[in-house]
């Protein structure tokens, strides 16, 4: 039986909104707490836009993007595409990424499940203080109609200026469509493109992508062998890439790629689930995870990948990677490095229905609950003066 990624079906849709003070508990020895700073309707992701240091942009599953500022947080609607979005299974509006030149171009890109159940990446353009729905341009549609889970979900611009796209394997249990190891398919991959229109082409493929000249391979592919990379991120200090890939039944994993890598990595699915041999087969080019959490060690549903903390308000965790578990809501941190992470430890903080982490322009770190609240990691009095978009009182 397939294990859902974020349980975006009955579990999350019926989850009650927990008391806003429930998770404000101190982390052992470091005085870090998870403090609620805003509430949204089934939020799925949080990020910031270049040139806007005072706001955070939050995607809501049904198809809206809200902008929030201050405390108490004042929110406004930035974009509404609810008529285009399917929330069947694990679908919805799942992330947004702003172009590096957003200040001048006004371009942003959204990742969602469309009404056919396919993955769709669209471009929009800012008009004044909001995105113009009429400016929509389709960048990429990836067929995804066999199952309603494993959509992936993430968009991020890398330090190289290209758009990275994490796609799930197409759903079902055990990759029945065989997409993870198939270089001819865009599912179960990390893609890398230039999303800007070029002539009649909706996007272009960087010439440095690893499979551009490989017969039968899709040139958009940057890495493969992923099951459901629901959340990934780039370290804002050095550009390292971290991928939280949701496991099948025994392992949750974090994959790590140092900055400047040429791509071409095979993270193993569906021959491997983490370092566990999932099915018979041999891979000569398997890149194992630097961190994995067996399900019998407290993770019960799926990993929610996070960020390497560069938060000015959390000095004791600088350089640590924060991640969590959707089912338990427990947060953990570890120091990522090759060949394996060190100092993996639990934090005494819990975010129910943990759908994502996010950063604002200052690097302040947030944890998002699909139940509604957005929390900020803060540490003693240090965080009160940090230049965060959503301050605490």
Comma- or semicolon-separated keywords:
mainly beta; Neuraminidase; single chain; globular; 393 residues; disordered N terminus; five-stranded mixed β-sheet; 2 helices; 27 strands
Helix content estimate: under 10%
Along the chain, the helix and strand elements come as HEEEEEEHEEEEEEEEEEEEEEEEEEEEE
Report how far apart the termini are.
46 Å
Helix vs. strand class: mainly beta
What's the overall average pLDDT, rounded?
A: 90
β content, as a range? 35-45%
Number of helices: 2
Unreliable residue runs? 1-29
Q: Round the Cα radius of gyration to an integer and report it.
A: 19 Å
Sheet with the most strands: spatial strand order: 10-11-12-13-17
The strand count comes to 27
CATH class of the domain at 10-14 and 40-302: Mainly Beta
CATH architecture of the domain at 10-14 and 40-302: 6 Propeller
Main sheet attributes: strand count, strand direction, barrel closure: 5 strands, mixed
CATH topology-level name of the domain at 10-14 and 40-302: Neuraminidase
The named CATH superfamily of the domain at 10-14 and 40-302:
TolB, C-terminal domain
Quaternary: single chain
Shape: globular
List the helices and strands and how they pair.
Layout: H1 10-13, E1 32-39, E2 43-47, E3 56-60, E4 64-69, E5 74-80, E6 93-98, H2 102-105, E7 107-113, E8 119-127, E9 130-142, E10 154-157, E11 163-166, E12 189-193, E13 221-224, E14 231-234, E15 241-245, E16 251-257, E17 265-266, E18 272-273, E19 276-277, E20 291-294, E21 303-308, E22 321-325, E23 330-335, E24 342-350, E25 354-359, E26 365-369, E27 373-379
Parallel strand pairs: 13-17
Antiparallel strand pairs: 1-27, 2-3, 3-4, 4-5, 6-7, 7-8, 8-9, 10-11, 11-12, 12-13, 14-15, 15-16, 16-20, 18-19, 21-22, 22-23, 23-24, 25-26, 26-27
